[in-house]
Design brief:
By secondary structure, the protein is an alpha/beta fold. Helix content is 36%, strand content 25%. The longest helix is centred in the middle third of the chain and has 18 residues, at 69-86.
Length: 232
């Protein structure tokens, strides 16, 4: 299967391509340029380096949040445009599940822990078989960690920021390595191949797909506060 995978759920971004179920290109950028400035160029370069074109793709798999509101909107608009224009199946993946896949095969529970800003995290807990134990959600870091009731490995950019809370949790037995803390497109490729993901093209499903936000954007929160102030 020929697959294009994308992640734009954070300030960095990644693109990966597989040809005949073999990973042939990975592009990971952690630079100041925005996704709107670099994503199309990144996709184009990855395809050219793989000696492929969009018409040869069997699937696009996309990390659909939670994460950066702006990054998710740009990424989803991009994959929707490509998929509908070329009639390519699209498969969205929860970013927390994608990150948990970085520890595929480990023998402990896995806690993806993503910094959601505003002293909050996006987090979930999966068992060693990647079955959901605590569903993806938005929470305060300390409160979420108290929900974990058995030994687990924690990964994600929230680990560094909220290390004090983590060190106080008796059920966190290990922290991920730096490469395991990333939501990266090559992991999506591995997931698609391992799970034999092969959806049909579905125009309506693609058109109606929205990012997995789990909370309102700061702009929406500010508007609510402003409306409330005027109502009073």
């Amino acid at each position: 299967m020929n697959i294009l995978a994308l992640d734009t759920s954070s300030s960095w971004g990644s693109v990966a391509v597989s040809r005949n179920d073999r990973l042939v290109c990975i592009s990971y950028l952690n630079i100041k340029a925005t996704h709107s400035e670099r994503l199309i160029l990144q996709i184009d370069k990855c395809l050219k380096d793989s000696d492929m074109c969009l018409d040869e793709l069997d699937l696009i798999i996309y990390s659909n949040g939670p994460g950066s509101f702006t990054g998710l909107r740009i990424g989803l608009a991009t994959v929707k445009g490509i998929c509908t224009a070329k009639q390519i199946p699209l498969f969205p993946v929860n970013s927390l599940y994608s990150m948990a896949y970085n520890l595929f095969g480990c023998q402990a529970d896995i806690v993806p822990f993503i910094d959601a800003k505003m002293n909050e995290v996006y987090a979930a807990v999966y068992d060693k078989d990647l079955q959901v134990l605590i569903p993806p959600q938005n929470d305060k870091p300390g409160l979420f960690l108290k929900k974990i009731n058995r030994p687990a490995i924690i990964i994600g950019d929230g680990v560094v920021k909220y290390i004090q809370f983590i060190n106080e949790s008796c059920n966190i037995i290990a922290k991920g390595m730096p490469h395991q803390n990333l939501i990266i497109a090559s992991t999506l490729i591995s997931m698609a191949i391992n799970e034999k993901i092969a959806p049909e093209f579905d125009f309506d499903a693609i058109s109606n797909l929205e990012p997995y936000y789990y909370r309102k954007s700061q702009a929406e929160i500010n508007k609510q506060l402003k409306d409330k102030y005027h109502d009073e």
